[in-house]
């Protein structure tokens, strides 16, 4: 929008939340749209590649599975790979993960990104230092004409029509604007505080509400191209490998564990020596009922937050921006239809991701703490209950509109949690047993051979950084 002038009001005194180190593959489309060079971005943010998430101890302690951004073959009918794998039931085949290229790459600590997007059988995202990423984007934005105003907003007086008139800063300056994008983090200064938009609370399904975050030195182990999420007594711990350090955090439910014990449990998870004091963050799961009200659009934490289990927050920021770009017509007052479409789309996206995150918890067999017992018996949102029913009864991976995660992702969690349909699809028998077994062996072996020939994640990353 070359005709628009964009001003950013930001306060060094307040700073940014500064956590949020794991992302979702759509970030690559966002970077492409902005013309960001991958090597430059990785160098600026101590970034690494991410092929998915390894979940440990979620169904039972001692078990692990991988949620990949890759292809795991057909999903229904006689060509359903998971269906044939279960029908063949050959122990010699190994785990279902062995049929998925990026899952094997992650397990073996290997990475490469060759060929075109269309040819590649997997997608990937990044890990990075969130503080450095914010600085990187700021520099990019300023270079393209965004004017940054340092200052603390103390008031946002409303106009007669209910919208925001201007922003009043602590030193008395006033910043005028037509459209205000509220990026004020958990404070939600404009949408939450000034416009008093109601918060829709998801706490009854997603009870985690605090996190200790602490970086550590990198251990001598190989640089995993994946995030690790380990289920603990009253929450879970993240482990995010960056090129210079490892990011750690313990996300927990304060109704099941106190802060000190949660901190202690985090420190037991660290890879190496801590390189900062653990920092406590408080949050609530949910979103503002509407995201765009009058002339205010909230993006990021000011609009809502879902716990970071699937690294969806930065994705939601970028998804919101993408929608806004499509619906804004500079110089025109946005029609009611555009505002409604934005609000409906964002609300649904939050609900779909909420359901996907609950899926990780509700399928647990753990009963070793009150949180896990409550998670296994909670009443589910109707939308999720229907999906579980469709999967159990018919092996169908039902998708609604505005899904953040595709059917392959849903399959990864069902499979990882050992949750399978009650009946096999009879059309699986259209393929002779021997042919199915041969195809599965061939795929597993081809993947193993391809991965063995790949560089390690660290070697590949270093080659990109040297560009
Ligand atoms: C524990 C935790 C883990 C997370 N992990 C992930 C993850 O792995 N992946 C992911 O995608 N996301 C993650 N997130 C979310 C992610 O951190 C945020 O979505 C992302 O950083 C964007 O934050 P934001 O810009 O909305 O808010 P902030 O970073 O808080 O920025 C708010 C801005 O508003 C300014 N501001 C606030 N008040 C005022 C004022 N009065 N005057 C002037 N300026 C003001 C601040 O200075 C700051 O610049 C995590 C969040 C938490 C809490």
Automatic annotation (TrEMBL):
Record has Transferase as a keyword: no
Annotated 7-chloro-L-tryptophan binding sites: 50
Keywords: FAD, Flavoprotein, Nucleotide-binding, Signal
Pfam families linked to this entry: Trp_halogenase
Domain of life: Bacteria
Annotated positions binding FAD: 301, 310, 314
Protein name, UniProt field: Tryptophan halogenase
């Amino acid at each position: 929008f070359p005709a628009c002038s964009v001003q950013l009001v930001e306060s060094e005194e307040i700073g940014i939340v500064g956590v949020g180190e794991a992302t979702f593959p759509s970030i690559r489309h966002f970077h492409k749209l902005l013309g960001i060079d991958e090597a430059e971005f990785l160098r600026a943010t101590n970034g690494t590649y991410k092929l998915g998430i390894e979940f440990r101890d979620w169904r039972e302690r001692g078990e692990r599975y991988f949620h990949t951004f890759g292809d795991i073959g057909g999903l229904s009918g006689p060509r359903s790979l998971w269906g044939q794998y279960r029908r063949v039931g050959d122990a010699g085949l190994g785990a279902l993960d062995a049929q998925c290229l990026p899952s094997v790459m992650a397990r073996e600590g290997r990475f490469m990104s060759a060929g075109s997007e269309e040819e590649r059988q997997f997608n990937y995202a990044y890990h990075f230092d969130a503080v450095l990423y914010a600085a990187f984007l700021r520099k990019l934005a300023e270079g393209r004409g965004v004017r940054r105003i340092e200052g603390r907003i103390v008031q946002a007086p409303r106009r007669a029509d209910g919208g925001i008139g201007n922003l009043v800063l602590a030193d008395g300056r006033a910043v005028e604007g037509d459209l205000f994008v509220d990026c004020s983090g958990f404070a939600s200064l404009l949408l939450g505080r000034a416009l008093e938009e109601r918060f829709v609370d998801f706490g009854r399904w997603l009870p985690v509400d605090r996190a200790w975050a602490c970086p550590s030195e990198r251990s001598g182990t190989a640089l995993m191209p994946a995030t690790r999420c380990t289920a603990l007594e009253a929450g879970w711990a993240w482990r995010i490998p960056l090129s210079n350090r490892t990011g750690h955090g313990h996300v927990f439910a304060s109704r099941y564990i106190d802060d000190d014990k949660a901190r202690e449990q985090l420190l037991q998870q660290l890879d190496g020596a801590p390189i900062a004091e653990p920092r406590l963050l408080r949050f609530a799961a949910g979103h503002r009922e509407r995201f765009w009200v009058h002339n205010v659009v909230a993006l990021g934490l000011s609009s809502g937050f879902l716990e970071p289990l699937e690294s969806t927050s930065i994705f939601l920021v970028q998804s919101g921006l993408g929608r806004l770009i499509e619906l804004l017509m500079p110089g025109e007052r946005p029609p009611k239809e555009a505002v409604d479409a934005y609000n409906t789309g964002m609300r649904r996206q939050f609900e779909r991701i909420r359901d996907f995150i609950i899926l990780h918890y509700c399928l647990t067999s753990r009963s070793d703490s009150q949180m896990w017992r409550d998670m296994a018996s909670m009443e589910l949102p109707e939308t999720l209950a229907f999906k579980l029913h469709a999967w159990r009864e018919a092996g169908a991976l039902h998708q609604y509109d505005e899904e953040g995660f595709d059917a392959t992702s849903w399959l990864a969690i069902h499979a990882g949690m050992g949750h399978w349909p009650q009946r096999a699809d009879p059309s699986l028998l259209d393929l002779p047993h021997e042919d199915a077994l041969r195809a599965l062996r061939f795929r597993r072996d081809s993947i193993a051979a391809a991965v063995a020939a790949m560089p390690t994640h660290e070697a590949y990353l270093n080659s990109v950084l040297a560009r």
